[in-house]
Amino acid sequence: MFTIDLTGKTALVTGGGQGLGAAMCSAFSQAGANVVVNYFNDPEGINLTRAAETVDTLGDAAVAIEADVRNAEEIERMIDKTIEHFGSLDILVNNAAILRDKTIKKMTAEQWQEVMDTNLTGVFNTCHAVAERLADGGRIINLASIAAFIGFFGQSNYAAAKAGVVGLTKVLSREMAKREITVNAIAPGVILTEMGKSIPDEVRDEMFKQIPLGRFGEPEEIAQVVLFLASDMASYITGQTLHVNGGWWG
Asked: Which residues does 177 contact at the CB level (< 8 Å), separation at least 6?
């Protein structure tokens, strides 16, 4: 029986304080890794509270570090703090994302740019910051979305950004291969996180009908795939997008 042991490794998860991110942080911790829970400190302090709660559940081998993925300087400081605290960085998971759904007629330029800045440029910023600092043999795992392949009504900004993540993943996998760093993406279907539950009921009902397995996904099911890609069992997988969606292909 195979077990995943990441003892001595350090994993950084952007947007790690809630939803998919919190599930990933828990999975890494259970596998023995040190964990950095990244969060964006919103004015209400909600993300800080959630990140602190996540760290509390993980114990001494976890820390919360504030950084806005849209800000390259903040990302650089986060990487510095991570390496100073744990000695290395081995695994980067680009999970931070937002929704600003509108039809193309009603979408403002600001709503388009907000999603691009976080969901695509944010991934570039973190990958750029770790390109020379991630440990040899490390892992980069990017969160794409089924939206990039199906193109949901009212999600032109989100779908375009996530499609960009898929393209970035393919290119970066080639550029990082000399150091045996693998770069892969995961395209989840509808997952029962706070973001997933925010989808209007009538829309979710229609989505539900498209899933052969007859249910929505759970955060832990995505976290387990992330853990696999971070492990030695996935050492020959790179440049790929794994679709974790219950069989939904539109």
From this structure: 238
Identify whether 158 is a catalytic site residue.
yes
pLDDT at 201: 78
For 154-186, the pLDDT digits (tens) are 999 999 999 999 999 999 999 999 999 999 999
Question: What are the chain's domains?
Answer: 10-244 (3.40.50.720)
- CA pseudo-torsion sign 69, 76, 16, 190: positive
The residue annotated as part of the active site, out of 28, 149, 158, 216, is: 158
